[in-house]
Amino acid sequence: MSLISTLARLEAISTGRAQPVATVRHRHLSERPLVLVPLTTAGEAGAPLGALVGTDRDAPRLLVVPQPRDRDLRFAFLAELADIVLPYVDSYADVVEAAERSETDPETGKRVKVEVDLCADAPQLIVPSRSGIDFVRLLGRSMRFRRTAEQEPEAPHPAPPRVPLLGRWLTHFGERARVPGSSLLLALTDLLTRHWATGQSGVEDQHLGALLAWIDPPGDESGDTAARRAELARDADGQLLCPPAGPATDPAFDNKLLAPAIERYDRARAALAAAEDGLQADDRLGDLTAAERGIRGLVESRTRPTWDAVWRGLDLLRELPEGAHAADRWTRDRWSFTGHRDRIIAGEPPQPRRDDAVTAANKLATREREQARLDAQEALDDPLVMAGRRLAGEAFAGEVTDVVMAYSEGKRPSPRPLVTVHTEDRPHLGERTKVYRSLGGKPQAAEFVGYDGPEGGDLLVLRIVDKMGRGKEPEQGSVPEKGDLVCFTLFEHDQRAGAKLPDPDDTPWTHGGPPGDPEAVPLPEQPDPVTEEDVL
Amino acid sequence: MTAVASSGFDPGAAATRATDAILRDTLHGTDRGVVVDSPPGAGKSTLVVRAALELAAAGRPLMIIAQTNAQVDDLVLRLAEKDSELPVGRLHSSDADPYDKALDDLPNVRKSTRAADLAGLDVVISTAAKWAHVKDVEPWRHAIVDEAYQMRSDALLAVAGLFERALFVGDPGQLDPFAIVGSEQWAGLSYDPSASAVTTLLAHNPELPQHRLPVSWRLPASAAPLVSDAFYPFTPFRSGTDHGDRRLSFAVPSDGSGPDRVIDEAAEAGWGLLELPARHTPRTDPEAVRAVAQVVRRLLDRGGAATSERSDEPVPLTADRIAVGTAHRDQAAAVRSALANLGVTDVVVDTANRLQGREYDVTVVLHPLSGRPDATAFHLETGRLCVLASRHRHACVVVCRAGVTELLDDHPSTEPVQLGVTVKFPDGWEANHAVLAHLAEHRVASRP
């Protein structure tokens, strides 16, 4: 944790309210996000209990699996979910704008610009907490390899038509969410903690109710008290007043309310199946419907508070103006969305169970680059974030006290003005350390020359080295003037693209050779050899 | 080289045997790769230079992959020192000042940003990052990968297509490579891109010959057993020198202060622990930082002289023979400014990551866990402590707040166990305890 966020947390404790750690909103928020509040069944991985889902805060769709262990009912739930999510996704797939992308020409091997479609906007999924993102991934993984009756008419238990497609999309959202700064799939708790620091720990911040209590406590109550109430307060029946944001449910709810309701449903279903005539069946169908309604009511009662909390959190975030670079990152999300749309249209198979060596390395490289880019962009967009970097010695701000014109040596001398900056910050500068400032949105580089005065003092001499035009005299406005307030960073503002990795088909021997070769993934696929300890 | 140690162990002969076996496998073996584990100061660079010269002499075009520009330049200089006639290519980036200016004085070293300009030279050297941009060239018959344990698997993936066979050399005890984003997604995969290059290489090619250099020429007899036991429990090594072969003495006697007493203890025993009162502090603990600076100041002021097997006469302990190691960059910056206040500007102060591969007579270490309220995976990483505790030829002074033992007991390792990932032994928790237990015998309490 950085020093400034520690300070913000301490301040939150002493004031009883969350403290802002950002002055702008660092993530793009869609005009029409799709909010998903899922619940899962305790002890059954990948068995949804229900969900509230939709784009209209006043009219969420309630989906419920009355008997979560019944796979037909689970498929019905997933099919319903697909009927909501896929039209939402599709509504962004068709609206495109023209864009340019550089591709390698297969014939010449040269990089050429090609005109391609870029979706003008992209869908955005919001879940309450980080475990919601994991749940989206789990759903994606459980669905994308399913076969429909159309694909495999002979196979038993076919999946409903659009379920595998939903699995592919949820997998894509889940993977994209691992890219720093991306906004296709966001957890509200992550969004809120990016912008506010509370007086509780990071793990406690994953409780949406407690987190909102710190940020926006009711009335005059302190965040501490409100958060404690959100976590612990129960009604006369022993049920939490603020149910957990899921997907896990509270055991008291499971035991006291859900289990009896499901039992009642199971009994009604068995009774219906055993009905001897139409009249009796009608009667018993009524019982079954009532039992199902009971479970629906229970699921809604646990998801609706979270649903409302998510929208309240979004309101709080919308009060902040969007950071300047958030749109740039959203454009990358749109590229990602467009790319996946194209893969599906092209009939490519679903994402593989595991990445191959080259894909994994490419993903890691992308994410590292995006992380560095995000860190730089957030600091440039937000003086409060920059303050944290300054406090950490990674940037400094101050006033220009002197500018001396100088030139580089060589045949064509270029301007290399020496700029003295007075700063109260204590940047970690060494000889010839590169520093950067933003000049019209582009980074201008300078070198640290030394201190004017004592070592480690407050007068820094910098040599500006670029962005001054081609002439002998620097272009107007490209060199800071005496009295200007400037802010330089020790980190770069933009990230270079890394080296291109080989094609997966050219995976070298050090990494097991090309995938598809059954020998390629040796160890994890095979069971351990039996040892003496295995035999009692 | 040193005489046969009293135990009958001949370090020179043991090292020669190991080197011969490595060169035999490299030059005449049939395997595509050879892996060499080298403990700190075991002559890894010497081995790389020797292997390069022998491969070049055998007429095999060779590429060398190192991890940083400093390592590349150092290797070029060492090669030129051994054989000034050898045609060497230094492939470099197009940034400003891409290589050490000293290379300009070497007539047989050609420098270029393009691999094509260096084609046909006996040896071409660059960083893994630069090699990754080289495309469409005839693969080299042979490569040497230096610091292979600090190279990430994805970096090897980018360059492995450039060579047919390779010698991988590195120190498994030093800091593992890291990623700035989470990579748990791939944990347990044999080609986890965030793992070390050697881990991936051996997962896919378990049959490759693996060698080990058995003797540390850097670490003194006082340090090798501790470093070996704490960080290399299953692959022990010895020091090349014996007790009494090296000596550190000071012209100016101790003034009785904490720094002076710990200097004397370290000069005598090879280790010294300057213990400050227990306290939770910010990372740049001002008292600990000042104590580090004072120890360095006194080391310089007291007219130190180092006697070793390298020369007959004692060599003065000058600023360039001393280094300060920390865990974090802000700590290094704080120590640097504290030193500047005491008028010391030419002592190297850096983090463990940047001190890897370097060697000094005396090191002063700010203990990574000093003053901390918690012991995170970063601070417990075995390699971090190993780097800091294995840079010295004579003595190492550790500055630390009291209470680290209790801190360790309060924070057993809690990292999730990943299936398919080889558990690294020893873990940082155990290694830290081992080092602290040893340091406790050389403790000097100090009140700032």
TrEMBL record, chain A:
Q: Where is this region: Disordered?
A: 496-536
Q: From which organism does this entry originate?
A: Streptomyces phyllanthi
- Protein known as: Uncharacterized protein
From TrEMBL, chain B:
The alphabetical list of record keywords is:
ATP-binding, Helicase, Hydrolase, Nucleotide-binding
Which InterPro entries did the record assign? Answer: Coronavir_polyprotein_1ab, DNA2/NAM7-like_C, P-loop_NTPase
* MF-aspect GO terms: 5'-3' DNA helicase activity; ATP binding; hydrolase activity
- According to the entry, every stretch annotated as the DNA2/NAM7 helicase-like C-terminal domain falls at 287-401
Originating organism:
Streptomyces phyllanthi
Q: Which domain of life is it from?
A: Bacteria
> How is this protein named in the record?
AAA family ATPase
**Does the keyword Hydrolase feature in the UniProt annotation?**
yes
Gene3D superfamilies in the record: P-loop containing nucleotide triphosphate hydrolases (3.40.50.300)
